[in-house]
Amino acid sequence: MPTPRVRIAPSPTGPLHIGTARTALFNYLFARRHGGTFILRLEDTDVARSSVAFEQDILEGLHWLGLEWDEGPDAAGGEDRGPYGPYRQMQRLERYAAAARGLLERDLAYPCYCTPDELEADRRAQEAARQPPRYVGRCASLTSDERAAREAEGRTGALRFRVPAEKVRFEDLVRGEVEIDTANLGGDFVIVRADGTPLYHFTVVVDDAAMGISHVIRGEDHLSNTPKHILLFEALGHAVPAFGHLPLILNPDRTKMSKRKSQTALSDYRAQGFVPEAIVNFLALLGWSTGTEEEILSLDELAARFDLDHVQKGGAVFDRERLEWLNGQWIRRLPEDELIARLQPFLEADLDAGRIDRLPAPEEIRALLPIVQERLPTLGAIGDLVGFLWIDQLEVDPELLVPKRWDAATTRDALGAARDTIEEAVGPVTFEADELEPPLRALVDARGWKAGDLFMAIRVAVTGRTATPPLFDTLVALGRERTLARLDAAIELLAREGAAA
Length: 501
Ligand code: GLU
Description:
Layout: E1 5-8, H1 18-33, E2 37-40, H2 52-65, E3 72-73, E4 80-81, H3 93-105, E5 109-112, H4 116-128, H5 144-152, E6 158-161, E7 167-172, E8 176-181, E9 189-192, H6 200-210, E10 215-219, H7 226-236, E11 242-246, E12 249-250, H8 266-272, H9 276-284, H10 299-305, E13 316-317, H11 320-333, H12 336-352, H13 362-372, H14 382-386, H15 398-401, H16 408-425, H17 433-447, H18 451-463, H19 471-478, H20 480-500
Parallel strand pairs: 1-2, 10-11, 12-13
Antiparallel strand pairs: 3-4, 5-6, 6-9, 7-8
The structure holds glutamic acid (GLU).
C-alpha cells in the first residue's frame, strides 16, 4: 500500500456535525496507523451558507478532539500549512477553471444552454412517464455554429460532463465489490454552473487528485456519488484513489441520524460536559470494533489498532446511554488536577446562571473528588450533584421532606431528634462520616423507624434533593454548623406548614 494521504473535507455551512467528527476520526486513525498524512480541506464554495464562524467551530472541534491534521488551514480565517495549498476551495477557483477547460477541449464536457424552464419541463414529462429524472441530452451534440449562435444571443452555457455508457466497478474498502451502471446516474451532469461556479462533484475530484489523496474514506451517503467521481478522475487523467464508505449513523429508531431526533452538533456535547476522550472512544466504536472485548480506548490506543477490515457495513446506532457511560468512565480516569481544572468552567456557568452562590476553591473540590468523581456522568452534572454545598439559602420542597410512610409531625419529630443526636454525639472538632452513622442508626432502632425514612428526610433537609452522594459524606462536606442550621430550617418549615394546614 502506498503511504496513505487521506482527508476530511467539511463544508463550513454549519457547526461541526458529530458524523463529520466520526469521519475525521476514522481518517485520522487510518493515517496514524499507517504512517500517512491527514489533511483538512475546507469545501467553502457554497458562499452564501459558509461562514468564518462555522469554520472556527469545525477547526476548534477537531482540535478539541485531538485530531490534529498534518496539512490544512491552521486556524479559522488563518494561514495554511502544507505543500498542496491552498486548502480552501474558494482559493482554488483557477484550478477548477483550468481543469474544466481541459475537459471542454477534449470534448469530455460540453456547454449546455438549456434554460431552467426547459429543464423543469423535462423533469415534469419524466415524472408523468414515471421515469427517473435525467438530463435528456439536448445540448450534447450541438455543432460549434449552434453553440456560437447561442452565445451570440448572450446565453452562457453551464458545463456538463459527458457520462460514458459503461459499468463503473470498484472495490470498496468497507463494502467490497460495488458495480453501478452509469445509465442510473441521471445523464450528463453539470460540473460548472453558467455563472462559472464549479460544483461539488467536480471540485472534490480536482482537489483529491491535486492533493494526491490515496484513500477517500467518507460516509455511506456519498456512495452514490462515487461512480461520478471515478469517471471524473479517469477523464482528468488521474489515478483513481481507493474508496471506503462508512456506515450511516442512525437514530435509536434506526432512521438516519437527524438534527430533529438527535443532538448532532459536537459543540453541544462539549457544552454539556462530555470529555473529548469519551467522544473519541464512542465515535470510534460507531461502526468499528476492535474485534475484542476492549471498550475503553484512548486516541493513541485506537490509532495502534484501527483497521478498515473491522468497519461494519450496516448502520451504526447512536446510543447516547453508551456515550454517557463512556464519559463517566473517562471522567473517573482523569487525574485530580485535570478534573478540577475541567470542572471550573461548568461551576462558573452555574454561578453565572445563579444556580450556586459562590465558586468553590480548587482545594474544596479536591476534597470532594472521592465522592463525586465516580458519580459524574458529565462535567456539567457537578452542580446537580453537589451544588447544594455552594448555596446560601437552600430551598426545600416540604412535600419531598416527608417520607411516604411518615406524616409531617413524625418527620418534624424525627428531624429534631436527629439534629440533637448529631449535635451531641459528634463534637465540633471531628465531624467524620463514620462518627455520624452509629448514633443515627441507634436513634432509628430506639424509635422503631426505618433507617431509609430518617436518612431520606435528613438528605432532603440538608440538600433539597432525594439523590445525592452518600448521606454521611454529604453531611461532612456541608460541615457541622451548616448541617445543624439546615436541619433547624427544615423543622421550622414543617412547623409553619403544619400551622398553615
Ligand atoms: N464537503 C463534502 C461534505 O461535507 C465532502 C464529501 C467528501 O468527503 O467527499 O460532505
